[in-house]
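go over whats below:
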Amino acid sequence: MKKLLVIIVLGLLLPNLLNAEPIKHIKFYPADEIKNPLPAVILLHTSGGFNTRLIKTTPVKYTNAGYVVYVPDFLTNIKLQKRVD
């Protein structure tokens, strides 16, 4: 019974995993790469989306401190747009 359940779950999940699109993202690097590998920060956007002031200003603070900053954009692939009232 457990094997059948595993096969069913994999059958449901696998097609979605194989057809998944890569997550759009931006990477920021420090101007002076002193050591390799560099420490990293993953900066996540709010429900306001990727083009918020936070995403535009915060990476500079971390790159100046010597961090690589990775900023994934989770909303573009699912085609969510800003709400207009």
The CA atoms of residues 27 and 36 lie 16 Å apart.
